[in-house]
């Protein structure tokens, strides 16, 4: 586990501790967190977008939004969001709209009624005669195997994808959407730039923080461990994070669902009997009137490593076949 004083969480709390509303804190994280991918790395061929540093003007805008979130609440609407990716997209769409840059969000392209070619996450102003296509993703991956296996070794908690597979899809298909014939009648101006904006957290076996080419050195990161390894963490105050609170580090005046290590073990042991999905938890510090995340990590079922290795072997076989 990281030294709490030097963690990303500590830095976030120092800068954004005045923000009280979860939606505004999530938006602040999307704008201010390190981009997951190093835009300068040759591997990405100059096709990685960056949010860049938060300006004083945007910082004031976030502070005012926290005081009066009516515009943000109206943009998100009354729906209850189930998908974290859609929630993050809506927050970014609101930001781009407020900045006067948004031309379209979620524009679907169809070759015909039954054939969807793809979807533009964001089309942004790029000068008077051009558009920029931003493909946006917020991802959470666990390092399984060796860092030398590059991005295929970073796998989703439910083993449904990997960073390598995600980026191959983005580069091979989604960033090419602006050149597709079916897109041309729907574009008010030509797409002259297409880049991927990727935010997220990476999780490593406890105590391991390998450097990886193509990944931003200061990216948001945490640990992962099997349920049977929980005692090795040394912490004794945890929160199970609901999915819509996976973005920004947790901070609240109170949290009724605080668990000690024994309670967390018992709860997850029961849950894993029927649902093998890994669980994201925050290690927290509790002081009078404040519960604050100091670290985070995925707790996985004890057989997760074996299932991850089996999935990796299947993927290797598919690659051989293809």
UniProtKB/TrEMBL annotation:
Pfam families found in the cross-reference section: DUF1853
Database matches in InterPro entries: DUF1853
Domain of life the protein comes from: Bacteria
Protein name, per record: DUF1853 family protein
Organism: Massilia litorea
């Amino acid at each position: 586990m990281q030294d709490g004083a030097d963690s990303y969480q500590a830095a976030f709390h120092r800068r954004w501790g005045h923000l009280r509303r979860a939606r505004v804190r999530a938006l602040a994280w999307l704008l201010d967190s390190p981009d997951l991918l190093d835009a300068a790395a040759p591997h990405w061929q100059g096709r990685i977008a960056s949010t860049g540093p938060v300006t004083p003007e945007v910082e004031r805008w976030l502070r005012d939004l926290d005081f009066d979130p009516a515009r943000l609440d109206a943009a998100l609407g009354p729906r209850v969001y189930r998908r974290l990716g859609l929630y993050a997209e809506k927050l970014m769409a609101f930001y781009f709209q407020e900045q006067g840059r948004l031309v379209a969000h979620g524009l679907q392209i169809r070759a015909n009624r039954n054939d969807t070619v793809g979807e533009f996450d964001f089309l942004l102003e790029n000068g008077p005669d051009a558009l920029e296509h931003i493909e946006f993703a917020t991802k959470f991956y666990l390092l399984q195997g060796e860092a030398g296996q590059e991005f295929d070794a970073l796998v989703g908690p439910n083993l449904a994808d990997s960073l390598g597979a995600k980026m191959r899809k983005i580069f091979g298909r989604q960033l090419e959407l602006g050149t597709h014939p079916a897109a041309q009648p729907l574009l008010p101006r030509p797409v002259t730039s297409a880049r991927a904006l990727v935010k997220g957290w990476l999780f490593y076996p406890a105590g391991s923080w390998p450097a990886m080419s193509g990944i931003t050195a200061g990216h948001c990161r945490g640990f992962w461990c099997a349920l049977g390894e929980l005692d090795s963490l040394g912490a004794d105050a945890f929160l199970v994070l609901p999915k819509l609170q996976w973005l920004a580090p947790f901070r609240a005046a109170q949290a009724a669902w605080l668990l000690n290590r024994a309670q967390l073990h018992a709860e997850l042991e029961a849950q894993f009997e029927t649902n093998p999905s890994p669980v994201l938890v925050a290690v927290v510090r509790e002081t009078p009137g404040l519960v604050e995340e100091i670290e985070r990590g995925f707790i996985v079922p004890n057989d997760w490593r074996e299932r991850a290795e089996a999935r990796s072997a299947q993927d290797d076989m598919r690659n051989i076949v293809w």
